[in-house]
Amino acid sequence: MAEGPLLLEAFYALVDKAPDRVQFTQPTGGGQVRDYTRKEILDSAMRMAAHLKAQNFEPGSRIGMLSKNCAEFIIAELAIWMAGHVTVAIFPTASADTVSFIIEHAECKLVFVGKLDTWGNLEKAVPADLPKVAFPLAPKTDLPKWNDILASTEPLPERASRDADDMAIIIYTSGSTGQPKGVMHNFGRMSAASHGIVRELKITENDRGLSYLPLAHVFERAYIECANLIGGGRLFFAESLDTFVVDLRRAHPTLFISVPRLWLKFQLGVFKNMPPKKLDLFLKIPILSGIVKKKVLTGLGLDNVRLAGSGSAPIPAELIAWYRRLGLNLLEGYAMSEDFAYSHLSTPEYSEPGYVGVPYPGVDVKISDAGEILIKSLGTMMGYYKLPELTAESFTEDGYFKTGDRGERKPSGMLKITGRVKEIFKTSKGKYVSPAPIENLINNDPHVELSCVSGSGFPQPYSLIVLGEDIRPKQGDAAFQAETTPKLEALLADVNSKVEHHERLECFVIVSDAWEVENGFLTPTLKIRRSAIEDAYESKLEGWYDAKKKVIWA
Fold first, then answer.
1. Is the dihedral of CA 73, 76, 82, 84 positive or negative?
2. How far apart (Å, rounded) are the C-alpha atoms in residues 13 and 19?
3. How many Å apart are CA 430 and CA 449, to the nearest integer?
4. Are 236 and 25 within 8 A, CB to CB?
5. For residue 40, how many other CB atoms are within 10 A of its CB?
């Protein structure tokens, strides 16, 4: 395992080094913020830990966390660990059925309720007799309040520690298909992975980050929370989608991570103010290029970013190249819940659009005869909670985790993801199609927000397309369709020129639905739920194929 203290001890060391240094900055509404120093964070965590210990739960009890990102999320996690328990964070966008399933499956003994947009819908999913604590930014409830508990509870008499083999968290995967699985991680491997991330990214106390992707997901948990508890930079929290730009400019992050859909949205926002051809022209003029790059990155709030990362899903190579042309050091990585996000990362030496980088130190990789990526990582999970048979099936005999992703490697170790093993489908001609690489070609077009390539059992595949949200309202207009159809036909021809004959798309189907987390078409980390999307449009497939059109406005 990587050298370095376990997470709790690492944070204690930060407190001892500079107790009055501000570690968290939390928006509280109306443009106001609250700063949390390290000693304040520690004091609050030790008080809440004392409250949890007073409940006399069995050691290792699971404590639920149902909240958007906020300072109290991390402070509560520290308290859970100090009290000898295990954190079970639940996506705040999860459905009531999923929330109910996780609480019951994990046998949660208490649930922290925090920032939520849909507490009215989720409240019924949390058993009425289950103890709860409301964070300061939680919806108005009659639940016991965080601040009241802190004010009336003495902190633990001494700092608590945990053993490396103790379970620390259960991460319930967002699940693009099926019921979520609980991924168990212990302190030793979480800490080893987190130290590795801090070292490789050279994170220091001078770095600033913005927390806005779900902390219930491993990506944000590892690269934002745990890296912060070790590296000690200043962490800002986002208030809401409406205030995101303000939050980003307040943070002036030096490190910024996002997911492909949001990187695409940022690009579309730039194009809205400056058309691609005009921007491209300006970037070719030496006297203007630097000014334009600075203006664009400042407008995005990314002008101070020294390292930007993309993960959670494949990102089009052209999109990475576009950001790098602006001067943003955008690197793609690859990891998953099962290895605590410690797997692959691009580096200055090994960085090529279309590839997800090389293995982190301490990661061993090979490709199976079937093309599946197999990984051994410092951050490898303990297993799936209550699923020993699935755990055993998920590893090779020599201990490599079966990722379920297909890939190719260069001699240098650089890895390219070519699709999901289970997402590959067969056409009626008996040919196999991997949809993800084709979707990446489509998604690189500025008109497109999301796409889903499918067509199992048909002679050729097709693609569903959701247009960018700024142009989506126009798509029912006949004049707009007439103007846009040739552009989409040209995109279809371009995509088909870059794929094998059996992968060429029969048509684009432009759907009017918005694919969102709330309607079940996207995971909480904005990946498409392929099966849900395919099921929603299955009854219309025959008609679309029979239409014999290149672009269909559904």
1. negative
2. 10
3. 30
4. yes
5. 19
* Closest C-alpha among 322, 346, 319 to residue 332: 346
Question: Are 453 and 399 within 8 A, CB to CB?
Answer: no
CA distances from 443 to 26, 334, 523 (A): 34, 19, 18
Local structure of 184: helix, strand or coil: strand
The tens place of each residue's pLDDT in the chain, 554 residues long, gives 447 899 999 999 999 999 999 999 999 998 899 999 999 999 999 999 999 999 999 999 999 999 999 999 999 999 999 999 999 999 998 889 999 999 999 999 999 999 999 899 999 999 999 999 999 999 999 999 999 999 999 999 999 999 999 999 999 986 544 678 999 999 999 999 999 999 999 999 999 999 999 999 999 999 999 999 999 999 999 999 889 889 998 999 999 999 888 898 899 889 988 989 999 999 999 889 999 999 999 988 899 999 999 887 778 888 888 999 999 989 889 999 999 999 999 987 888 878 899 999 999 999 999 899 999 999 999 999 999 999 999 999 999 999 988 899 999 999 998 888 888 888 988 888 989 889 989 988 888 999 999 999 899 999 999 998 888 889 989 999 999 999 999 999 999 999 999 999 999 999 998 898 888 898 877 888 888 899 999 999 999 999 999 999 99
Q: Give the amino acid at 408.
A: E
- Spatial CB neighbours of 213, under 8 Å, sequence gap ≥ 6: 69, 219, 220, 224, 257, 258, 259, 525
424 CB neighbour count, 10 Å cutoff: 16
CA distance 454 to 460: 9
**Spatial CA neighbour of 340 closest among 171, 138, 469:** 171
Domains defined along the chain, listed by start: 7-25+35-187 (3.40.50.980), 244-420 (3.40.50.12780), 425-553 (3.30.300.30)
Cα–Cα dist 217/172, whole Å: 8
Q: Which of 215, 210, 217 is nearest to 233 (CA)?
A: 210
Beta strands in 145-303 (DSSP E): 167-172, 182-186, 208-211, 234-237, 255-258
**Cβ burial, residue 307 (10 Å; 0-12/13-18/19+):** middle
Alpha carbons 147 and 498: distance in angstroms, whole number: 58
User: CB 43: neighbour CB atoms within 10 A?
Assistant: 16
Record the tokens describing residue 82, joined without a space: 């100090």
Query: Are 395 and 382 in contact, with CB atoms under 8 Å apart?
Result: no
Amino acid (1-letter code) at residue 411? P
Q: What dihedral do alpha carbons 407, 409, 414, 415 form, nearest 10°? A: 0
Q: Walk across the sheet containing 358-359 and list its strands.
A: 255-258, 307-310, 330-334, 344-345, 358-359
CB-based contact 510:552 (threshold 8 Å): yes
Are 64 and 88 a contacting pair, CB within 8 Å? yes
